[in-house]
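haha ok so turns out i had the wrong file open the whole time. this is the CORRECT one, sorry everyone. sequence first:
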Amino acid sequence: MSSTAFPGISTPAGPLPADAPAWNRQRHSQMPSHRYTDPYDRVEVPLADAERRWPSRRLTAAPLWVPVDLRDGNQALAEPMDPARKRRLFDLMVAMGYKEIEVGYPSASQTDFDFVRLIAEHDVAPDDVTIVVFTAARRDLIARTVEAIRGIRNPVVIHLYTATAPSWRETVLGRDRDALRALILEAGRDALDLAGDLPHVRFEFSPEVFMLTEPDYALEICDAMTALWDATPERPVILNLPATVEIATPNVYADQIEYMHRHLARRDGVILSVHPHNDRGTGVACAELGVLAGAQRVEGCLFGNGERTGNVDLVTLALNLHAQGIDPMIDFSDIDEIRRTVEHSNRIEVHPRHPYVGDLVHTAFSGTHQDAIRKGFAEHRARAAREGRSEREIAWRVPYLPVDPADLGRSYDAVIRVNSQSGKGGIAYLLETEFGIRLPRRLQLDLAGHVQRRADESGLELGAEELRRIFEDAYLSPRDDARVVLAAAQIEAAEPQPRTALRLRVDGVEHAAVHPGVGPVEALTAELAAHGMPIEVLDLQQTSLGAGTDAEALTLIEYRGARGTGWTAGRDRSVLTATLRAVVAAANVAAG
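then structure:
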């Protein structure tokens, strides 16, 4: 292919790699990818294949969730939260069931300090909620943090962090390994000195940029901190191992976590935590594999807000467990209210394709998807009826919907929506669920053609009301040039057999006729044939558009006339009138 095939795109010539398969004829790009190999070379995880257990494990229970929206997420906002927005989000997290919440960085800003004081002075957190505060490894900042938490009756975690990766040591901190180790331990002693006597306070340490830190050095620092803080099962230390910047595939992070999990000196006194970011778009995978590798705790944000491409999304993580039959221990039964609160606090909209919560995640436009969903719903209802249980009690197995939208407080209204990509199944589903119009399969095919033409013309999504208008225009609306009008019809009881009396206006002239011993449809088709408009009814289906005595009846007929087969419909509170109107409509179409 020449380089001019796509304007603005350069495809320079060059040799293919020696091992490139015959079908892979991609050219080299002009992107300098070789510049990004160094970070991978600097992280070698000394984990033998025989030690690696995470690939064969399965998730069986929820980890301890720790939302960090009020600190880490807040730092990533163009407009950081004011106290009212912070309080609303904090109250939401408590209501959802989070038992450990990071509330701020009180030494970094007066707003964060004041919010921590609000928690202390107004007793806003339930007794079983642990409050986490964040600080850098410097005595004056630790002292300010301890000042902020004084008076809080809840359990408190003081979270101390320092970057440990080579680039950060050399470029940012200007310390070698030994000097940085000394700085961290000094900060750990400061924390003990200032807060170690408080019985409700525990400690957390994060070797920031853990995933780029030499594993032996990360282990050395973490073991030194757990020894300093005397980590025990009764008063455990949290070791939080962040993927501060994602730089490798999730399996590498899992190996790093399992290495630490297997080699920590005081493992039974450690709560091992992960804090993945999402630079490569694999934050959720990193967290899941990290838990398989031995992590017991996950820090992240609701819907993944955070610096750059975000922190790991705690909602997606938890609902992934729910979709596998594992209780996430957090309440997502009103996910739209959760989203509204997070959007209000962050002033960032959640994407319509965001897993589980986006406006379109339970929506199918594709015809094949819609058909499968419609059949899945029908089978789900039938299975519930067979088993004598409610639809919410039986196993969920509806194609293309990994979870029941009702679990999240969603209705089924938006599950199927129609555009130019849609098919008969979706159209039929919407007409039936919204209006009670049940279409036989052959009529679904016929109507789909009308809908496709309308969608192609507009290029827009078609709602249920528009679909009904298309249906009525195609099959119910009277023709302006109608040759036949049904004036009256009556089934009369008579001896020796009942009879059907009809009055038709044909080309403006009224005709009356009585047909003994036959049903109304047979009588009407006979009368139409007598006036040169023969109609053969191939299929006839009747349904009720609603419930109660005042509900309208709808009759659908497939007919064969002089011009071939087709479909028409009739509607009336009388089933008889609806049926005869459908037959007359067929005669008018055939005669047209």
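The longest strand covers residues 536-545.
again sry for the mixup
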